[in-house]
Design goal:
With 308 residues, the protein is α/β, with parallel strands linked by helices. 40% of the residues lie in helices and 19% in strands. Strands 1, 2, 3, 4, 5, 6, 7, 8 and 9 form a 9-stranded mixed β-sheet that branches. It is globular, with a radius of gyration of 20 Å.
Length: 308
């Protein structure tokens, strides 16, 4: 392997944009307008449609080609479609939607249900997690700009009143329907409201800080302009960032499972992680700890909904 060191340049990178919103918020149309702004008037746009043919309904918005994926929505089918788009030389590839690879027929949760068949769900993720990582790598390593849409839904949690002892359901806001932490993989992650207004929940460009906007071609043009501005050195300690993200995900999962981590010493957290996952809280176990905690969180959410 030949190691080459060079100056980091924005112009040599590609955009990875995530759009999340509930049904009817305008994710598909927004993705097409955003793609046209990124690709320019003559750029080639490809949509990978998993919404059962609805991607063809937006042909009036701009010129684009389409690949329609049918069930099963296994991640490998997404990867093949992305590679086909790269081979055909598309400038922007839209994936509409990534949620099917997680929750729909043939998605990872569907596979987990079938493989576990009421048994231990922990063991099946050893084979399923690499599928998810292959999809993420296909997006991150693509020669095209990638726009991925994700469905979002209202999240709830049970909250106990310390004085009365009574429990109540509390709304936590909208959450993407995909594997937890997927939003970390994008350059910019935009949340779209039911009224079509958008804001960023993650923005490495720092272009949209505290801004509420409608997604159109001008947003894509701003992003391309940001990429091409000079040859600024962008130094990121990717390994440290990813490790910190994994730690944040562990803490978040513990809180969702009812263990409050605030003001708790590290040894207590280590003990709780081992109780939940049977694993030591060490860096080499972070991925598997998150996998196991994600399963427990998902099962808790299902149980909470059944209690209502």
């Amino acid at each position: 392997m030949t190691i080459q060191i060079r100056k980091a340049e924005r112009s040599q990178s590609k955009l990875r944009i995530g759009l999340a919103g509930p049904s009817g918020s305008g994710k598909t149309m927004s993705s097409l307008k955003l793609a046209r702004g990124i690709a320019g008037p003559n750029g080639k746009i490809l949509m990978i449609d998993t919404e059962r043919g609805s991607g063809d309904l937006y042909a009036h918005v701009t010129d684009y080609d389409i690949i329609t994926l049918a069930p099963p929505y296994a991640p490998k089918n997404y990867v093949e479609a992305i590679e086909a788009g790269e081979d055909a030389g598309y400038d922007v590839i839209i994936i509409d939607s990534l949620s099917h690879a997680w929750t729909d027929e043939g998605g990872l949760l569907d596979q987990a249900d079938k493989l576990s068949a009421g048994g231990n769900r922990f063991t099946v993720w050893a084979s399923l997690t690499p599928q998810h990582r292959d999809l993420v790598n296909a997006m991150l390593n693509s020669d095209a700009h990638i726009i991925g849409t994700v469905r979002s839904k209202q999240e709830y949690a049970m909250e106990k009143d310390e004085k009365s002892g009574k429990s109540s359901v509390k709304k936590l806001g909208m959450a993407p329907v995909q594997r937890e932490g997927m939003e970390y993989e994008f350059t910019v992650f935009m949340d779209i409201e039911q009224n079509h207004s958008a804001h960023t929940s993650k923005d490495r460009t720092d272009l949209f800080k505290d801004e509420v906007f409608l997604i159109d071609e001008s947003i894509g043009e701003r992003l391309v302009n940001w990429l091409s501005q000079g040859k600024e050195v962008v130094v990121q300690k990717n390994k440290d960032i990813r490790i910190n993200q994994k730690k944040v995900m562990i803490v978040k999962a513990l809180n969702e499972l009812g263990f409050a981590t605030k003001d708790v010493d590290i040894e207590t957290i280590k003990a709780k992680v081992k109780e939940f996952t049977s694993l030591e809280l060490v860096e080499t176990n972070y991925d598997e700890i998150n996998n196991r905690l994600a399963v427990l969180v998902q099962e808790k959410k299902i149980a909470d909904r059944q209690k209502k």
